Amino acid sequence: MVGNLLLRGMMVGVLAGLLAFCFARTFGEPWVDYAIAFEEHASHAAGAAGGMEEPEIVSRATQAGLGLFTGLVIYGAAVGGLIALAFAFANGRLGRLSPRSVAALIATLGYVAIVIVPQLKYPANPPAVGSADTIVARTELFFAMLAFSVALMIASVMLARRLAERIGGWNGATVAAIVYVSIVAVMFAALPDIEEIPASFSPAALWNFRIASIGVQAVLWSVVGLAFGAVTEYAARRENAPRHTAGAAALR
Amino acid sequence: MTNAAFATSASTPSRAEPIPVSKILPWAVFGGLMLVLTVYFVGAEEGATSLIGGSVVHEFVHDGRHLLGFPCH
Ligand SMILES: [Zn+2]
């Protein structure tokens, strides 16, 4: 049962990764190319003072094609698996929500906790923006923010469920959302900022890259949420169908 | 199978019976491990840390890593 859900989520995630690849290729790659051109320009300027060229291990065409495709499909499968597991916990436990609504809700909350909140504090950067010296600190801060945001979201959903028994579902969810946003705001204020963007890097290119990044994730999470819900409801209807017709039940 | 189908037929069709947590946990542990591993290779291998030598994995999924918002260079 749970194994089937997990497999279904991962398959839907592969499909979502495919669509996310089309989006990323169209709206994201131009800005990656811009950033790499910027980077090469900068390193040529530095190279004149005695630096040396970095060897190209994987060609740009492969990175922007098969590499991007592989990365997004694997990440999509992971997102699908995560949503499937969260669905297994949540389905039938969130008031009277239908399976489809539960899947859509999980995808929305997951997108907020895993993409929007961490990215508001530590936004996506194209190549050439980060400093190699700070990669360890940046990675630690990013994953700390991510883990905290996810844990806080789980706690908030549990709080909303508990409050729903006393003050109703809508009020309970509102209070839990206020608690979530308030604690996230404190976290944003407490964690250090990272300011590494080169002064000559185009602000428009940076903005477009970040919007594309948010969009890639939006395609991924919405496709998984909607498709997983649709397939699950279709499967449930097929399973329940024989009970309406006595003959079909006897055939089983 | 038939017993279970008839037992649930009394409840509303749109709302499923919750799956017992004890049945989800083993899958959650297994799925969680796979999840961490895949996200690690797409998002972090040969960045701040490295499990397998060289930077082929890093370079191969590099565009995806940047576009998914993971910290990189
Ligand atoms: Zn990079």
TrEMBL record, chain A:
Protein name, per record: Cobalt transporter
Keyword Translocase: no
Cited InterPro entries: CbtA_put (IPR012666)
TM region(s), chain numbering: 68-90, 102-121, 141-160, 172-191, 211-231
Organism: Hansschlegelia quercus
Pfam families documented for this protein: CbtA (PF09490)
UniProt keyword Transmembrane present: yes
Entry keyword set: Membrane, Transmembrane, Transmembrane helix
From TrEMBL, chain B:
InterPro entries documented for this protein: CbtB_put (IPR012667)
Membrane is among the record's keywords: yes
Keyword Membrane: yes
Residue intervals passing through the bilayer: 26-43
Highest taxon in the source lineage: Bacteria
Key words, A-Z: Membrane, Transmembrane, Transmembrane helix
Name used for this protein in its record: CbtB-domain containing protein
Species, as recorded: Hansschlegelia quercus
